[in-house]
Specification:
The complex is a heterodimer of chains A (623) and B (187). Chain A is an alpha/beta fold. Chain A contains 24 helices and 22 strands. In chain A, the strands form seven sheets. A six-stranded parallel sheet of chain A has the order 2-3-1-6-9-10, sandwiched between helices. Chain A has a five-stranded parallel sheet with strand order 12-13-17-11-18. In chain A, α6 (193-206) crosses α7, α14 crosses α16 (435-449) and α21 (524-550) crosses α22. The longest helix of chain A is centred in the C-terminal third of the chain and has 27 residues, at 524-550. Chain A is globular. The two termini of chain A are 59 Å apart. The relative contact order of chain B is 0.17. In chain B, α1 runs antiparallel to α7 (156-179) and α2 (40-47) crosses α7 (156-179). Chain B is mostly helical and 187 residues long. The longest helix of chain B is centred in the N-terminal third of the chain and has 32 residues, at 2-33. Classes of the chains: A alpha/beta (623), B mainly alpha (187). Chains A and B meet through α1 of A and α1, α2 and α3 of B.
């Protein structure tokens, strides 16, 4: 963890006494002359501060220096370590000795002419991207500060530790690693301007008050879920972070899953929806564009607080039986408004990798206009765009190191590691269509390949082609979880067999996190068995072909002995039959394939043996 | 040319008085003496710092005779001496368009404006309290400076009390300076 760094440009506060008082009262560490020489007393510091008087002394004369100030701003915008000023506090009035005309305008002149010219905001060249907070005693400067694009105006007397902490939260460009109490696996790594602006926006949404609403848009793999986690963590909400991923095929479940249901029949129990489970916390609706039209209408109602509270209308009827009614009331997470409706306090976040901010995309996806307005542009709602990795290329080394460390610890590899310059160069020049998730996948592969080494060389990185293929099935970091996230293209086309590395497969399967949402579990066992059967078939087929190449007849058992790593023919035979029972009873195996022929042969042999045993009265050996 | 030079001579006290008033209020009293971070307790903490600490060194310098806490007291007295004439509206008579009037008319007007200015503004009445307050401020600062460098060292409570006396005097002086006009008083 490191502290955010602020620049204080003030002729008074930059004096030794002013610096001392500032640091003492605002909980800062003075790093103007390098690391502090005197130990800090009192509460933990919230930032490091560098002070600049903005003036040059020549004997008894002191005059204002624009060059000095601009050089000081430029010294850490960004610094050699990629750090940026989290905030620049600027007192607009500087007094020269002897007095000079225009002293009172000096600070504003800096902002107007220099900061805007040199560092215009990417989305608005009329203001500066440097987060400037104007502070002065002169209240009439407020409107001027507003016009020139200052983040905020603050009366000098209002400034203190609490005010500074609020300023840093709402206006500061603060990296996630600059904050206390963040676990490494939760960290949103990076210090690029694009990311810092996104995090600042996220903190503003987090503090938008009770029942706030936010929409997160961004390309696949850019880290929308991680940003949603970040918002929840900064919202200081005591409740849980509930995620609901909308699947287009789950139409029947969406309503109940989201909003819950009173018992539909006598025997059924109350179903509490995600919206209610998230009471006092955050509800994150991922892939919101998949929401069915009728459920969009329900969501619109939910996102329209009545009397400042969200009200959800459960499906079904409130139980009439007094005992069941009491039971239902006890099960309510929120407050029961009446027999059907429940009041909840939820920070509602939604996300999509579709450009829902474009009318054409909304029309194409059938996304309700009113709902979009409510989620992204309405009162107490906001829209946040997560940049793709190309827009924050300078973060790649930091991100790679971050993911590499996490993956290395996971595979119990050697740490620390050095990433060779040539490796970083290669990473910086790649296109990263899969964004941060893709980079995480590459770091994971590099961690596995360098488990015993302390240096990551270019040869440890997957090739660009295999990197794209492996993206479809490698586990990627998403917030604090590791999960297999298929890319868009993976949904449309079957994965290539070569996309998986054989040696990694057992570990990948063991690490796969089983989803807990009922809609995700629905029918999943059969699909899983079929997929697993398909995989085992392919392995067997390959082994049979391999055995047939070396033996002229009877290659089934050699193949099984090979795969199972056993020498006993009987053990191999019995396991083959077990596999057939377990896996292939519902899976069609092509009769002309090597496996089909082998299974037919095994069944035939078994029947013959059973027939012989029946004739001779000897019980056949059972697999 | 001669008229221009005479004009400059007449304007100079005005700009000097305006500047003095601004500096005394903003730079000296508000930023130095009455800053919310410089309470008695806070300054007493600075006093307890090591002699080599930059903050303590700066404050020790400020509390020396001629230091930046003491020096402005001379400016207070200077402002008190200047202000009555400096902010008088009769200066306007020497500026266009009134300067185009005949000399006789201008003199009559000058006397009238000056008389009315003195009657209507309390600037004359402010002069003595400001001078007295400057003396009181000096005494309070002197008391603080004595405690600051006392051997054996003064207790934190003594320092804090001396600082509060300075701040109290500074607050009253600020109230008086706030009543001083910010420029020429228009009729």
């Amino acid at each position: 963890m490191s502290l955010p760094r602020i620049l204080v440009i003030d002729d008074q506060l930059a004096q030794p006494l002013g610096r001392y008082e500032c640091c003492r009262d605002w909980n800062l560490i003075d790093v103007t002359d390098g690391p502090p020489r005197h130990p800090r007393e009192g509460p933990p510091a919230i930032a490091e501060a560098s002070f600049c008087s903005g003036q040059v002394r020549d004997g008894s004369a002191t005059w204002n220096s624009l060059e000095l100030i601009i050089d000081r701003v430029a010294s850490e915008w960004p610094s050699r370590e990629g750090r940026r000023w989290a905030l620049v506090l600027l007192d607009v009035r500087f007094d020269s000795v002897p007095p000079r005309e225009g002293d009172g305008e000096f600070g504003l002149e800096i902002i107007l002419k220099q900061l805007i010219d040199r560092w215009p905001a990417p989305d608005n060249p009329g203001v500066t991207e440097v987060p400037v907070v104007v502070m002065t005693r002169e209240g009439h400067r407020r409107s001027e500060a507003n016009k020139i694009g200052a983040e905020r105006f603050l009366a000098k007397d209002e400034m203190g530790a609490a005010a500074l902490a609020t300023l840093l939260r709402d206006h500061g460009l603060v990296a996630d690693s600059d904050l206390l109490g963040r676990r490494p696996e939760e960290l949103v790594a990076g210090r690029s301007l694009a990311l810092l602006r996104t995090l600042r926006h996220a903190r503003r949404i987090a503090n938008s008050g009770s029942n706030g609403t936010g929409m997160i848009l961004g390309p696949q793999g850019s880290g929308k879920t991680t940003i949603a986690h970040y918002i929840h963590a900064h919202s200081s909400r005591s409740g849980p972070f509930e995620v609901y991923t909308v699947h287009p095929q789950d139409s029947g479940f969406q309503k109940v899953e989201l909003f819950g249901s009173w018992p539909l029949q006598q025997q059924m129990s109350l179903a509490v929806g995600k919206a209610e489970c998230a009471h006092s916390g955050t509800l994150f609706l991922d892939e919101v564009h998949h929401l069915r039209r009728e459920n969009q209408a329900l969501l619109l109602e939910f996102c329209r607080p009545i009397g400042g509270v969200r009200v959800l209308d459960r499906h079904g009827r409130f139980p009439t039986d007094p005992r069941e009614a009491n039971e239902a009331r006890r099960s309510v997470c929120g407050r029961l408004r009446d027999d059907r409706k429940v009041e909840v306090d939820v920070l509602f976040l939604s996300a999509s990798n579709e450009p829902l901010d474009e009318v054409s995309a909304r029309a194409r996806l059938g996304f309700d206009e009113s709902l979009f307005t409510r989620l992204a542009q309405g009162q107490n709602s906001d829209m946040l765009k997560v940049p793709d990795l190309r827009a924050r290329r300078e973060d790649i080394p930091l991100l790679f190191a971050h993911f590499l460390e996490l993956a290395t610890h996971r595979v119990r590899g050697r740490w620390p590691k050095v990433v060779a310059t040539s490796t970083l160069e290669q990473l910086m020049t790649r296109e990263w269509p899969g964004n941060v998730d893709e980079l995480a996948g590459v770091a994971r592969i590099a961690a596995e390949r360098t488990a015993d080494f302390s240096e990551v060389l270019p040869r440890h990185l997957p090739t660009k082609q295999s990197q794209q293929q492996s993206l479809r099935h490698v586990p990627v970091l998403s917030g604090s979880q590791t999960q297999i996230v298929p890319s868009n293209s993976a949904r449309q086309e079957a994965p290539s067999p070569s996309s998986l590395r054989w040696a990694e497969l057992p570990r990948l399967l063991s690490e796969f996190e089983v989803p807990s949402a009922p809609e995700a579990l629905h029918g999943s066992l059969q699909a899983l068995l079929e997929a697993f059967g398909e995989l085992v078939s392919r392995v067997l087929e390959t082994a049979l072909k391999s055995a047939s190449a070396t033996t002229t007849r009877g290659h089934v058992l050699p193949a099984m002995r090979l795969l199972l790593g056993v020498t006993s023919t009987s053990t191999a035979y019995s396991r083959l039959l077990l596999l057939q029972k377990l896996l292939f009873s519902g899976t069609a195996v092509a009769s002309e394939s090597a496996l089909g022929k082998a299974l037919a042969e095994a069944a035939r042999n078994r029947r013959e043996r059973a027939g012989r045993a029946k004739k001779t009265g000897i019980k056949g050996k059972r697999g | 040319m001669v008229e221009d030079a005479a004009m400059l001579v007449r304007i100079q006290p005005v700009t000097e008085a305006i500047d003095l008033r601004s500096r005394l209020r903003h730079s000296w009293l508000e930023n130095e003496i009455l800053s919310s971070r410089r309470t008695g307790v806070a300054i007493a903490k600075v006093h307890q710092l090591d002699m080599e600490h930059p903050a303590k060194r700066q404050l020790s310098e400020a509390l020396k005779a001629g230091g930046c806490w003491f020096a402005p007291i001379q400016d207070v007295r200077r402002l008190a001496a200047l202000m009555t004439n400096a902010f008088s509206p009769d200066l306007l008579i020497d500026s266009p368009p009134l300067s185009d009037l005949p000399l006789r008319a201008r003199e009559v007007l000058r006397q009238t404006l000056r008389q009315r200015y003195r009657l209507e503004s309390d600037i004359e009445a402010l002069r003595a309290p400001i001078v007295d307050m400057a003396t009181e401020m000096f005494d309070a600062l002197h008391c603080l400076a004595t405690s600051w460098s006392a051997k054996p060292s003064a207790s934190p409570d003594e320092i804090a009390a001396a600082v509060e006396s300075v701040r109290d005097a500074g607050q009253r002086l600020l109230s008086l300076l706030t009543r001083v006009p910010a420029g020429v008083v228009l009729p």
